[in-house]
Amino acid sequence: MSNIHETAVVSALSNVHPTVKIGAYSVINEHVKIGEDSIIESFCEIGIKNSLNKSDQLTIGPRSLIRSHSVIYSGSVFERNLETGHHVTLRENIKAGVNLRVGSYSDLQGDLFIGDYTRIHSNVHISKHSSIGNFVFIFPFCVFTNDPIPPSELVRACTVSDYAVIASSATLLPGVNIGQHAFVGAGSTVTTDVNEYSLVVGTPAKKIKDVREIKIPGEPEVPAYPWKSRFNRGFTDEAIKILLQTEV
Amino acid sequence: MSNIHETAVVSALSNVHPTVKIGAYSVINEHVKIGEDSIIESFCEIGIKNSLNKSDQLTIGPRSLIRSHSVIYSGSVFERNLETGHHVTLRENIKAGVNLRVGSYSDLQGDLFIGDYTRIHSNVHISKHSSIGNFVFIFPFCVFTNDPIPPSELVRACTVSDYAVIASSATLLPGVNIGQHAFVGAGSTVTTDVNEYSLVVGTPAKKIKDVREIKIPGEPEVPAYPWKSRFNRGFTDEAIKILLQTEV
Amino acid sequence: MSNIHETAVVSALSNVHPTVKIGAYSVINEHVKIGEDSIIESFCEIGIKNSLNKSDQLTIGPRSLIRSHSVIYSGSVFERNLETGHHVTLRENIKAGVNLRVGSYSDLQGDLFIGDYTRIHSNVHISKHSSIGNFVFIFPFCVFTNDPIPPSELVRACTVSDYAVIASSATLLPGVNIGQHAFVGAGSTVTTDVNEYSLVVGTPAKKIKDVREIKIPGEPEVPAYPWKSRFNRGFTDEAIKILLQTEV
Fold first, then answer.
1. Within an 8 Å CB–CB cutoff, is residue C80 touching chain B?
2. Is B73 within 8 Å of B55 (Cβ atoms)?
3. Statement: residue A247 has pLDDT above 70
4. Domain termination residue (choose one: B85, B115, B145)
5. Domain containing residue A28
6. C101–B contact, CB cutoff 8 A
7. What pLDDT was estimated at residue B54?
8. Cα four-point dihedral sign C144, C147, C153, C156
9. Alpha carbon distance B131, B111 (integer Å)
């Protein structure tokens, strides 16, 4: 138990692997399962229950890293290698694949499906019932919405397909679908669906070109997108193998 | 005292009702009054004093819920049923009516007047001296500004009238007044006053129609606004009675 | 040691001046130097090490104020009179001059150079390798980006020159340079360099006038910019002396 700081409060009804490190003043509630070699930093509260939890369990896979001041609700399953920034809020009923990264201050509002190897940067707000694919990149201050006539009981959630990129400060209006390999420019407000391989920018966002026409700066012959053939920083060997598979 | 976690630090000069629950590691400073059946979650600091406080008292009404990692300054009065998300900052000299909701990460900068039954979602920034009416909805990442020639000593604060809706990621420029039942579209930058019942969108925001022309999706005969005749989730019986009053 | 709350965890290998006050539940790690008369409020973690730290030291100058729930990494030097809001994240390898202010929830991502007397308000996101001059004002929800073809290994960081003003919710695209005394309007998306003394607004931001043509509201004869001749709230005598120097 020497991995657990003496000021941490760990429920006897939790299931924390003996290799897990827990920082000062963190609280681990009952029915929380944390896999081997994970780290929970200081000032976190893990396993918050509320009336919306579909399950009273929370599963955080092996080799995860939860940075300080983060809050994670019960009712979710995060597969191995979850990594969060500081001050993150992850609400109930999230099903997330392997190696999800969530940046500081991001707020995942719950009832979400997220694929494998997706990276959500800082200050991103994902509204309830959104669905996000594999290898998606969402940059700081993006906001997903889901209510077509706010306030209402209607939910028109957004979907984002594999390999799509949503640049900083973009806002997705309710029910928008972002296609595979699409790119949403920084500061855009997306009001309609974005086709695969489309680059859209502006308010409202309009298609200005195919992403395959974008070149690497200084290398006018080399297409920059799809990005999967040229970028793999921080991905595991297994992920890189997937990235480099030729598409059918 | 069994409602107070053993690690909480509660000033002997506070006035916390015996039914209040206080979570792990929270700090309640002197001259804080918390009404019956309220819950203060973990890692909060309640009752911070600074040189700007008009009063050294802080009043949080009965049946309030303050979620974890929140910070509330002295000098404010929140009536019953205040509910906050996580990581909220509520500064000094706020006068708020009943049943205010403030979402995670929102930052109310102080010297504010807020009416009854208003809902401020996550990551909203309300600048000093703003005035917000009753039954107002402000969605995530909205920013209110107040300085017409920044940086300056001038204050031109924004006002929002009853039943108005400000959708996600909207920015209000200094001194803008939003009329009753108006609707500001997501991602808009509002540079001039918005008349009652107007729908404005864009940067700069322009009126595109009367809100009463917006229909419920799939129900082309049914007007969606004013919303008060069709939405009441989470409101008390008393609030619903007000919502359903016919206007004169 | 009576300035240090009994629940604070202060490393024996830190170098905290005896006059420093440390609040409840804060953690000060090893190799942290904090100068005289500074205050660290509650729930902070100061001196986080990671593999990106260029140094394992952190220096916080005299008379600094770090508000609650803030996180500061090792590898940075902040000169005297640093002042932060709540829930701030300051990452590794920042070199900041005197009297830097950073508002609540702001996230300085590291590898930064920041001059003297600069004020970064709430919820600002500064991406890695940005460079910010002296007496710069950056208002809430501004986002600096640095990757021209995200995701990539390329870094095209932004620079902001002395006395520039970036109003709320502005987004700077990768590699943008903001000239001295320039003004970026609220809600703008800046896609190209901004010349000195230019006022730019919109998405994409376009120059609409010279800042020296902007007048003080109600005083049509009095130019509002450069602001340095008319605003000095909160600055020290030394700073005011610099502000009032006539330019050559």
1. no
2. no
3. no
4. B115
5. 1-120
6. no
7. 80
8. negative
9. 9
What are the two backbone dihedrals, phi and then psi, of residue C97, each rounded to the nearest 5 degrees?
A: -75, -160
Contacts of A39 (CB under 8 A, 6+ apart): A20, A21, A22, A23, A64, A65, A66
Q: Which of B41, B89, B169 to mutate to test the interface with C (most CBs of C within 10 A)?
A: B89
Total count of domains within chain C: 1
Contact of B92 with B72, CB cutoff 8 Å: no
Residue A151 sits at the chain B interface (C-beta within 8 Å): yes
B26 interfacial to chain C (CB closer than 8 Å):
no
pTM: 0.97
Res. C54: pLDDT tops 90: no
Kindly tell me if the per-residue pLDDT of B247 is higher than 70: no
Determine contact: B54 vs chain A, CB below 8 A: no
Q: Is B60 in the same domain as B105?
A: yes
Residue C175 has a CB neighbour count (10 Å cut-off) of 18
**B130 & B241 share domain:** yes
CATH number at residue B138: 2.160.10.10
At residue B135 the predicted structure's pLDDT band, cuts being 50, 70 and 90, is: very high
Strand order in C171-172's β-sheet?
Answer: C9-10, C27-28, C45-48, C71-73, C89-90, C107-108, C125-126, C143-144, C171-172, C189-190
Q: Which chains lie within 8 Å of chain B at 3 or more CB pairs, if any?
A: A, C
Residues of chain B neighbouring C230 (CB-CB closer than 8 A): 152
**What are the chain B neighbours of C243 within 8 Å (beta carbons)?**
none
Give the end of a domain, one of B64, B85, B115: B115
Asked if residue B106 and residue B130 are part of one domain, the reply reads: no
Q: Is C11 exposed, middle or buried (0-12, 13-18, 19+ CB in 10 A)?
A: middle
CA distance A124 to chain B (A): 10
Whether C65 is in a domain gets the answer yes
